[in-house]
Structure formats: structure tokens, C-alpha cells
């Protein structure tokens, strides 16, 4: 009796209603399937023995494909209630972000945001974390840590928990941190913003950073760049989240 090379179904005497060259279980044509597998294996061997640049191109393509598959994965079943809650949350966060961005680099708006209080705790921890790497990194560490921190839960959500919608919100948070830092950068010239613990001008992070770099005159341009990057990163997060919801909606319709 013939055994299927794909699903390993063992052909039975009662399977005479199906052509001898076709698997009654999965429907493949034995010979064509084997030929295709042999051709694929031969191509894999050629790729592994090919010129270095072809290896790199194939490897990069494979990595990009795997990352794309990871970041666009959605479950085979979607709970309708959870879906509409996610859609409502994304819309609410987008509306809030639009309101925040519409005011430009306004310290009273950005500093008065509830997210600023959240970011501030991580900002202060960043100073402690980077302090062993010197004075410059100690000053930079606060802003750097609050910007990079959301990428950690983003990776956990995507690679470990396979929750790309939550990961997209972490990217939005990362962008919001760029915006959160912008007023601080712009204030480097005057050092007038209130600091945690009542610190004086000597404790102003970006005043010290740009002084060390002899770039205080660039504070306005750098603040605008941080604000613009923040908008773009937040937009990428919203587009990612919307695309994930679109894929989940298609699953719901099916």
C-alpha cells in the first residue's frame, strides 16, 4: 500500500474511488509533490553554497519576512467584544494624541499631561541607571531611558505574547516620549522649567547636555526635531494598530 509523503496517510484497499496517484486524505499528487520537494531542496542547497552576497540577500529577505509575519500576526479567533474595545481605545488615544500635538511644543500642555507624570518616574530612574557611565550619560540617561523603555514591552507583546495591538500602543507611547522631551530641550537656553526636587539651573539636563556639546544655540531646532520624530513614531504606531484591527475584523467576518 502507498503511504502519502506529505500527510503519511496509508492508502487502503477501499480507496479505489480515488486515483492511485492521488492521496485520498490530503489530495496531493504523489509524484508532483515529491518533484516539487526535490526542487525546493535542490534550491536550498544552491542557496547555501552560493556567493556570499546572495546568501546575505536571502538571509536578509528571510529575516524581514519573519519580522513582518511576527508584527502582523493575529489569532485565528477574535472575540467581538474585545475587538470593539480595542477599536474604541485606539480611537480615544488617537483623539488625545491629536489634541496634544495640535498645541505644538507647549510646556503647559505637555507637562500637564497625565502621561508626563508617568514618564517622569522612568526619566528619573534613567539618571540613576546611566550615572555609572559618566556625567554626560547621567544627564542624557533620563530622556534616553524614557524614550527607549516602551520598546521593551513592545518586544514582549509581539514576540512573546503575540499581542500586536498592545505592541502598537507601546510604539505610540515611545513617540509620545519624544514629544514629552521636546519642551525640556527647548528650555536649554533659559533653564526656566521647574525641576524635580526643586533643583536649580545646574541640574537642568538639556542645558548641561547642550552646553557640553557647545550646541545651546541649537536647542530650538533639536526640540522641533524631537517633536517631529515623536509625531511620526506615534503615527506609525496608530497605523500599525489600525492594520492589526483590520486583520482582526477580517477574521471576525469569516
Alpha-carbon Rg, integer: 27 Å
- Tell me how many strands there are: 0
Beta-strand percent range: under 5%
How many angstroms separate the termini? 39 Å
Helical residue percent? 55-70%
Q: What structural class do helix, strand and pairing data support?
A: mainly alpha
Key features?
elongated, about 250 residues, about 0% strand, 2 domains, mainly alpha, 10 helices
Report on this model:
- Helix 3 (80-102) runs parallel beside helix 8, helix 3 runs antiparallel to helix 10 and helix 6 packs antiparallel against helix 8.
- This protein has 2 domains: 13-70; 77-253, no CATH class.
- It has helices at residues 30-48, 52-71, 80-102, 107-111, 114-130, 135-148, 151-160, 164-186, 205-212, 219-253.
- The mean pLDDT is 88.
- It is an all-alpha fold and 254 residues long.
- It is elongated.
Q: What is the secondary structure topology, with strand pairs?
A:
Blueprint: H1 30-48, H2 52-71, H3 80-102, H4 107-111, H5 114-130, H6 135-148, H7 151-160, H8 164-186, H9 205-212, H10 219-253
Amino acid at each position: 500500500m502507498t503511504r502519502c509523503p506529505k500527510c503519511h496517510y496509508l492508502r487502503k484497499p477501499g480507496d479505489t474511488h480515488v486515483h492511485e496517484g492521488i492521496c485520498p486524505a490530503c489530495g496531493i499528487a504523489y509524484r508532483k509533490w515529491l518533484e516539487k520537494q526535490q526542487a525546493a531542496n535542490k534550491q536550498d542547497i544552491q542557496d547555501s553554497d552560493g556567493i556570499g552576497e546572495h546568501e546575505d540577500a536571502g538571509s536578509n529577505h528571510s529575516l524581514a519576512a519573519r519580522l513582518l509575519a511576527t508584527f502582523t500576526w493575529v489569532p485565528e479567533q477574535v472575540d467581538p467584544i474585545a475587538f470593539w474595545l480595542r477599536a474604541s481605545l485606539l480611537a480615544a488615544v488617537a483623539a488625545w494624541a491629536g489634541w496634544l500635538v495640535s498645541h505644538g511644543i507647549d510646556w503647559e500642555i505637555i507637562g500637564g499631561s497625565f502621561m508626563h507624570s508617568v514618564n517622569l518616574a522612568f526619566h528619573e530612574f534613567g539618571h540613576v541607571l546611566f550615572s555609572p557611565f559618566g556625567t554626560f550619560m547621567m544627564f542624557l540617561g533620563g530622556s534616553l531611558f524614557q524614550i527607549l523603555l516602551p520598546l521593551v514591552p513592545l518586544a514582549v507583546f509581539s514576540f512573546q505574547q503575540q499581542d500586536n495591538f498592545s505592541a502598537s500602543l507601546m510604539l505610540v507611547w515611545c513617540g509620545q516620549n519624544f514629544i514629552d522631551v521636546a519642551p525640556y530641550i527647548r528650555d536649554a537656553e533659559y533653564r526656566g522649567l521647574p525641576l524635580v526636587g526643586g533643583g536649580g539651573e545646574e541640574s537642568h539636563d538639556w542645558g548641561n547636555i547642550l552646553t557640553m556639546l557647545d550646541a545651546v544655540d541649537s536647542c530650538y531646532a533639536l526640540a522641533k526635531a524631537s517633536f517631529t520624530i515623536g509625531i511620526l513614531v506615534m503615527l506609525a504606531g496608530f497605523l500599525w494598530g489600525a492594520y492589526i484591527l483590520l486583520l482582526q475584523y477580517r477574521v471576525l467576518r469569516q
